[in-house]
Each structure stands twice: as C-alpha cells, then as structure tokens.
Amino acid sequence: MKDHLGRPLVAVTGIGMVTPLGWGAALSWARLLAGDSGIRRIGRFPLDHLKTTIAGTVDLPEEDDGGSTAFSSPQRVERMAAFAIAEAIAEARIGSEGDFPGALMLGMPPVEHEWPQRFALARAAHAGRYPDMVRAATGHRDLYETFLFGGIGERLAARFGTKGAPISTTTACATGATAIQTAVEAIQRGETLAAIAVGADGSVQPEALIRFSLLSALSTRNEDPARAARPFEKSRDGFVMAEGAAALVLEDYEAARARGARIIGLVAGCGERADSFHRTRSNPDGAAIIGAIRNAIADAGVAPVEVGYVNGHGTGTPENDKMEALGMRAVFGEAPPPISSIKSMIGHTLSAAGAIEAAASLLSIRDQVLPPTINHVEPDPSIMLDVVPNTARQVNGLRHVLSNSFGFGGQNVCLLLSAPPEA
Fold first, then answer.
1. What's the rounded Cα separation, in Å, for the pair 195 and 188?
2. What is the reported pLDDT for 67?
3. Which residue among 168, 214, 320, 403 is buried most deeply as judged by most CB within 10 Å?
4. Is 120 among the domain residues?
5. Which domain does 349 fall in, by range?
6. Is the confidence at residue 40, as pLDDT, over 90?
7. What is residue 266's three-state secondary structure?
8. Quick one: signal sequence residues (predicted)?
9. Alpha-carbon torsion angle 414, 415, 416, 418, nearest 10
10. What amino acid positions are annotated as catalytic residues?
11. Residue (of 411, 324, 309) closest to 360 by Cα position
C-alpha cells in the first residue's frame, strides 16, 4: 500500500513514554485522561531568589524521593530515552535484544556544562576564569563524553543495536516532532524499513530555569503548582518547564503487516515551516504556523475538514496560544476541530514535547478519546476554540489528528497522525 504520492505508508507499531505523571505509556495515558497534574515544587536544587519554583520533574529510579543534583541533563535524557525506546520496541516485538533492524533518530536539547561541573572545575583550577577551567578539564574524558552532543545517540545506538549512524537533532520545542519527521522521510525514501524516533529532555536545572525566567516565559503561579499551567485560558501567565521522553517504532506499513505486527496508527503527514522573525517570538502574521499546519495536512492527502482533533502546542504563554488560535482559524475556518493541550497536566517537556504529543495523538485515535485541557477556568474571548475543558471526551469516528509543535526561532513542525487502513 502506498500513500497519495506513491510513498510507503509509515506505520507506528510501538510507543514508549516517560512523563511527570509516571514511567510507561499506559500509566501516563491513564493519568492524562483522568486530568491529573504532574507539576510540583522543584526539589533537586535550591530555589532561593528564583521567580519560578515549580516544574514537571521526573525522578530517575536511582534517585531518592525529591530528586538529586547527581544527574546532569544529558544523563537524564539518556536514561529516559532508553526506557522509552525499550518500551516501544517491546510493544512492537521487532528484532532481538540489542539488534534493532533500523535507524535511530534522536531529538534532544542542546548540551552544555552545567553549574555543578563548572564549579568543580573552578575549584580544581583554584580560579574561576574560563581558560583556567579549560586546563582543569584536560584529561577528564568522562566529562567530555557526558556532554558531547552526539554521545547520547551513539550510546543508545550501541545499546539497542540500531543500524547506521544515529542522527541527533535539536529544533527547540519542535525537536521531538523533527525526530519523527526525519524517521518518516527515511522510510519513505526506502533507506530503511524501520526506525526508532525518540524525543527526550531533562533540562530542569538552575541555569535553564533562570534563562526562561529572564524571558518572562514561565508561570510564576508557585503557590498552586497543579493549577499553574493554563493553556488557552484567560489568566494564563506562562509555561511550566518539564521533563520526559517518548519513542515511536516506525515501520514501512507493508513490511510491518508481513511480519504480523499490530499497527497502532500511521504518521500520514509531516509539515514544517520556519520564519526568521525573532529568536523567541512568532511572526505576528502567523505565516509559518499556518504554513506548517497546511503542509502537514496536504502531505497526508486529507482535507482540513477530515481532521477530527488537534493536539495543540498550547504552552500557556499569552502570545503562543494566541498565535496557535490564529493558525487554527486560518486553516479550519469558522468550525475548527476540538483542540486540547496536555501541557496543562505535564508542563512543557521542550525537546520531548513533539514526540510525547504525537504518542498521545495516536492513543487518542486508538481509544477514541480526547485528553482534556485542565485548569480552564475562564475562556479567553480572543481564543474562541473548543479546548476540551477540564474533562476527557469520548468520541466516535476519529481517524485523523493533527499534532502541533511550534519552537523558538520560528521552528515549526506539525504531524498528521491517522488510523490504520484496516481500522
């Protein structure tokens, strides 16, 4: 079977997930549908003088309750990505342990030395100047390998036995969706019959929190963490940083059917569009957002009216939600489909968001249910959309879901997820 452009259909046969709501796709999905919040007070580093003290953190199994400063962001990324990949492969029942018959596409955050490592180097150098710290780092191979951007992908590829060079990408908040798009296009070109696409982020650490805070991007509703993230709501005041990972096993549809795989759904279309308007803001004309949505729908060969639900980017910042609403109206007209944001429950998982939300979109199709946008108290009169407020909604006949990922710097990727042909 081919798509409308004569390309192989791309099937999803396995899903793995880690979110602030728990380890494992089934647990995270159940709690999302229940409207639970994974946002809480940060416990892994001091919060003195910080404007924002809440996040959607994920404690690793090796940690004590409340987290620890022992693990850096890349270490957290690697552990969560490995869990999600293992879960996805187990569900797909593909290959043997350590011998995955396809490629690895990893979406992850930019990596740099964090404060604990910098302080340790400064102490070793007996000085805080950068040249002294560089000299103190000489010979510390472990430090280099931990923070080497491509190192995580290499180690994951070795662990799971993927084929070819792993590809690591970062496109801001669209990163997880970019990883999926990269894998889809490799299968469509006939370069591989299978691929793992994973997005992961573990960036809840002091410097990242301060940087986003200086941009006035974060919610400061610290007194009530569970109600802090309010996408599309009138009183929204910013997003909540979070961590997590999701992995999809993607396969050529005919190859998956031939081996008897259970098809969860299809990645039917991918659309991207960028602008160079500002390092953090979207162009007020919305051209890139509108273009990415239209490109995904056109790539899938469906009409806008066939899209039954949108898993929104929905960060909860005043500008982003307004721009997403603009894009919805421009593409879908006066009768847009329902849109909800799971970031209201798990926060903004940054580089993982596109992958987690694509996974949730597929599960929406499988179970015929829309996850809610919680904390929706008062509608914003400038965002007149059906945001599935506060409670999950059972539906019938849902076959096509759009998943939006809009990143800083105008990096936008949208995915169109569809029910399998036999459904």
1. 11
2. 47
3. 403
4. no
5. 10-111+148-418
6. yes
7. strand
8. none
9. -160
10. 173, 313, 348
11. 309
